[in-house]
């Protein structure tokens, strides 16, 4: 059975989110011994097979051979081999992660989605060394791997670690991913390991190639596998994930409102400029509280709710809660990626409460809405109503499909869906 970190009522902290620091344990005397590393590597492969993240012998063999700890010397061995955690390798002066080694479950998912073959030409965007070594192991000595990063600290480190672990044929390129790999294409596979708002690399993809991109739209990220289908790229198997955002020409800065000294953060992609002072005041004023009557069971995913809200609401964004700073100002349904409707002066967000007891022993929660600010009641009612629409009409339908078109293409509007227009491309999300 495939186990993926998804929006679920019982979990407010998503292990596997690539912007979230790994849990770091104590270092013991034998923590760096070869025997310990070999054992943890074997256990990691076993766990990823059981979860369904590893599905092929080629990917399993790569994870069994490449020494992850050699690419993460700052992490204790158990943290380096934690299947659901990332290893943050660099932070900016504010403590924000700017480079990391992704969680193994997500690396395995993306490698499986790319369907790498022996002798393939592969581009990796966003470097660190470890993922490039996995790719090199899968495609063999006749393959060709290019890994690109904009940060010289990252590329120097990746090149050194790759050489030390006997993967010197991987070509490490310092440059802006928007154009740095142009001379090396076309590629049979492209794997992007940074949060991309746009996707300019379709021109580098071979006709039968596959491109795996964690693509951002309306503050949501889905890792989508794209394959060519005429004049478009068809998206397959969108997977909930999170990545450190792209830097350079491909960067796209969402609007952010950091409130209450960092205890709460609102994020929205576009729209009028947010009034931080007004939103800060709204946070501590009396709020609107609405119950929806919509219930979710413990562990039951409801991540399509975000997609539905992004379909129908230009004001859709996210609210983030820092439990170390929050003074019970908000009660979000999820710590990460909790949906919200946001205007310059007001906001409303999703919350949870225990549902009424049932005859069954299963634990259920009821989705609710809290609204803050002058227009908080209006936003809360809108969010409440769209939760009901999702529950009635779309909750049990297949997830929406995704297609990627060039920016200058004429794209018909989906009957139910939305077109996200970007600099190089147009992402179409359509509900069947």
Automatic annotation (TrEMBL):
Keywords: Cytoplasm, Methyltransferase, S-adenosyl-L-methionine, Transferase. One of its GO terms (biological process) is methylation. SUPFAM superfamilies: S-adenosyl-L-methionine-dependent methyltransferases (SSF53335). Its main location: cytoplasm. Its EC number is 2.1.1.77. The keyword Amino-acid biosynthesis does not apply. One of its GO terms (molecular function) is protein-L-isoaspartate (D-aspartate) O-methyltransferase activity. Pfam families: PCMT (PF01135). Belongs to the methyltransferase superfamily. L-isoaspartyl/D-aspartyl protein methyltransferase family. This is Protein-L-isoaspartate O-methyltransferase. It comes from Microbispora cellulosiformans.
